[in-house]
């Protein structure tokens, strides 16, 4: 586990300006993403907004944890999605002030207390993005379980 942790302590990314307010970000693992602004901010709406990318990162980080915790607990999980809503401060810097994650977890004979435990462990112990964003925003969670 120590080798795995040390591999993720240092991360790299590059962001290159393309045109207007469009940028291409490239991760250290070689994946690229386009970021662009809305037309009312000089963009052409050709990519996600940078602050949306933060929410996507949070959703990915927390969903990864929830799925892994449930799978390690031998739960028969077949789908997991998280719907995120957020509010930002009106003044600059427009940081997130409230973030809500609604998990929809689908599986066979999934127990609500197992899903609740997985979400809590992610939020309080494992999800770096959630814990970091929780320093400036009120981060809340709820969930629903769908039986198949």
From TrEMBL:
NCBIfam families: PRK10738.1. PANTHER family: PROTEIN YHFA. This is OsmC-like protein. It comes from the Bacteria. It comes from Methylotuvimicrobium alcaliphilum (strain DSM 19304 / NCIMB 14124 / VKM B-2133 / 20Z). Coiled coil: none annotated.
């Amino acid at each position: 586990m120590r080798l795995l942790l040390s591999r993720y302590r240092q991360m790299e990314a590059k962001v290159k300006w393309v045109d207007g307010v469009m940028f291409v970000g490239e991760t250290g693992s070689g994946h690229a993403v386009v970021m662009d602004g809305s037309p009312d901010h000089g963009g052409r709406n050709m990519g996600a907004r940078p602050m949306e990318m933060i929410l996507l990162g949070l959703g990915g980080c927390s969903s990864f944890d929830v799925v892994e915790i449930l799978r390690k607990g031998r739960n028969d999980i077949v789908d997991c999605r998280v719907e995120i809503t957020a509010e930002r401060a009106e003044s600059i810097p427009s940081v997130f002030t409230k973030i809500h994650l609604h998990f929809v977890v689908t599986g066979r004979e999934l127990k609500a207390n197992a899903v609740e435990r997985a979400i809590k462990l992610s939020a309080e112990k494992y999800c770096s993005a959630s814990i970091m964003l929780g320093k400036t925003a009120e981060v809340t969670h709820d969930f629903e379980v769908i039986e198949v």
